[in-house]
From TrEMBL:
<dbReference type="InterPro" id="IPR019810">
    <property type="entry name" value="Citrate_synthase_AS"/>
</dbReference>
<dbReference type="InterPro" id="IPR016142">
    <property type="entry name" value="Citrate_synth-like_lrg_a-sub"/>
</dbReference>
<protein>
    <recommendedName>
        <fullName>Citrate synthase</fullName>
    </recommendedName>
</protein>
<dbReference type="InterPro" id="IPR002020">
    <property type="entry name" value="Citrate_synthase"/>
</dbReference>
<comment type="pathway">
    <text>Carbohydrate metabolism; tricarboxylic acid cycle.</text>
</comment>
<dbReference type="InterPro" id="IPR024176">
    <property type="entry name" value="Citrate_synthase_bac-typ"/>
</dbReference>
<dbReference type="InterPro" id="IPR011278">
    <property type="entry name" value="2-MeCitrate/Citrate_synth_II"/>
</dbReference>
<comment type="similarity">
    <text>Belongs to the citrate synthase family.</text>
</comment>
<dbReference type="InterPro" id="IPR016143">
    <property type="entry name" value="Citrate_synth-like_sm_a-sub"/>
</dbReference>
<keyword id="KW-0808">Transferase</keyword>
<keyword id="KW-0816">Tricarboxylic acid cycle</keyword>
<dbReference type="Pfam" id="PF00285">
    <property type="entry name" value="Citrate_synt"/>
</dbReference>
<dbReference type="InterPro" id="IPR036969">
    <property type="entry name" value="Citrate_synthase_sf"/>
</dbReference>
């Protein structure tokens, strides 16, 4: 067998052949199935984009109507899932609640007919439809309230915002939220997608695939960064304190949350779109000091770290948008998961089409031939 050089984090090593998305990190380009993210953000909807990612081409209007109809009518979660969620500690992180609930779906739909297109369609629809309901349900239940039933009259994003607040959301807020979902739906071989593909390669069920990806997304170096961005903006507190705060971080060699990317060496194109959405929201609903702090941070970080290719990533402005929509900080990552489920399912399907179980090797750097020491002699 060919022996390759060990690369921590598998940096630069292809883990799959994929036609789902593409990133050009030098030029700041992101494409889903060949279509630029800017075009999808302007013209598409999240469910249409999910269809594109999962089935490889844009749906016809008939196909889209049918898909939207199926998703709309599968939004309710089983009362036994709700009862299970009621037992979760209210102090627990919503990502942990989501991971457990997504895995629990596999208990109810345990058939594994992985090569049957009807089974695949069912699982895709069920996961896309119920993940937002589970996120909203936990949010209400941890505050001691009953979950809000999904509203069949509202589209995907408006319904999610409605389930969180029991109020019909403003159309601009719903559209902006929907664009956020488009922007987070897929991003090549990131950690959670890799995790999804590894799990898929064992031929387990799609609920286990999504649950393992949700667990991977939760860490602060991946999806969890946007929560930390808001905490950081709160800690900084004013535009005047940005420079001293950043200088202190750099001196301590601390990572600045929401900046830097393994692939992008220019500004993440999703950050540019999100910044524009944040501006639209602030124009309609009133300005916010955190936005001014964020803009100043971007300026100072570029001055200090631009030469290393450190620019804002998707998490930098997404937190600001969600906070302005009134979404609690610890729901930011579950919302990332709502979107990324589309990408994970596309990768699940692609992995199954040409499956080989992942089984990498390792470089053993431990000892050999060590004698067992009796416990009283240690
Ligand atoms: N703040 C300050 N310096 C940073 C930085 C950040 N956010 N991200 C990278 N750097 C610096 C590193 O210190 C390193 O400097 P050095 O060469 O002088 O040691 C250099 O840039 C390369 O960084 P490295 O950690 O090797 O990059 P990576 O590709 O392994 O890491 C991330 C990518 C995303 C993990 C990293 O940028 C990070 O931790 N960012 C903050 C968390 C975040 O926003 N995550 C969301 C990603 S979408």
């Amino acid at each position: 067998m060919m022996v390759c050089e060990y690369k921590p984090g598998l940096e630069g090593i292809p883990a799959a052949e994929s036609s789902i998305s593409n990133v050009d990190g030098q030029k700041g380009i992101l494409e889903y199935r060949g279509i630029r993210i800017e075009e999808l953000a302007e013209k598409s909807t999240f469910l249409e984009t999910a269809y594109l990612l999962i089935w490889g081409q844009l749906p016809t209007s008939e196909e889209l109507k049918e898909f939207e109809h199926e998703v709309r009518h599968h939004r309710r979660i089983k009362y036994r899932i709700r009862d299970m969620m009621k037992c979760f500690p209210e102090s627990g992180h919503p990502m942990d609640a989501l991971q457990a609930s997504a895995a629990a779906l596999g208990l109810f739909y345990s058939r594994r007919d992985l090569h049957n297109p009807v089974y695949i369609r069912d699982a895709v629809v069920r996961l896309l439809a119920t993940i937002p309901t589970m996120v909203a349900a936990f949010q209400l239940m941890r505050k001691g309230n009953d979950p809000v039933r999904p509203c069949d009259d509202l589209d995907y994003s408006a319904n999610f915002l409605y389930m969180l607040s029991e109020k019909e959301p403003d159309p601009l807020a719903s559209r902006i939220f929907d664009v956020c979902l488009i922007l987070h739906a897929e991003h090549t071989m990131n950690a959670s997608t890799f995790s999804a593909r590894v799990t898929a390669s064992t031929l387990t069920d799609p609920y286990a695939v999504v649950a393992s990806a949700v667990g991977t997304l939760g860490g602060p170096l991946h999806g969890g960064a946007n929560e930390e961005v808001i905490q950081m903006l709160e800690e900084i507190g004013s535009v005047a304190k940005v420079r001293p705060y950043l200088e202190d971080c750099l001196q301590r060699k601390a990572k600045i949350m929401g900046f830097g990317h393994r692939v992008y060496k220019v500004k993440d194109p999703r950050a540019t779109i999100l910044q524009d959405l944040a501006q639209q929201l602030f124009a309609k609903f009133g300005s916010d000091k955190y936005y001014d702090i964020a803009v100043e941070m971007e300026r100072v970080v570029e001055e200090k770290l631009g030469h290393k290719g450190i620019y804002p990533n998707v998490d930098f402005y997404s937190g600001l948008v969600y906070a302005k929509l009134g979404i609690p900080t610890d729901l930011f990552t579950p919302i990332f998961a709502i979107a990324r489920v589309a990408g994970w399912l596309a990768h699940w399907k692609e992995q199954l089409a040409e499956n080989r179980i992942f089984r990498p090797t390792q470089v053993y750097n431990g000892q050999h031939e060590i004698a067992y020491t009796a416990i009283e002699e240690r």
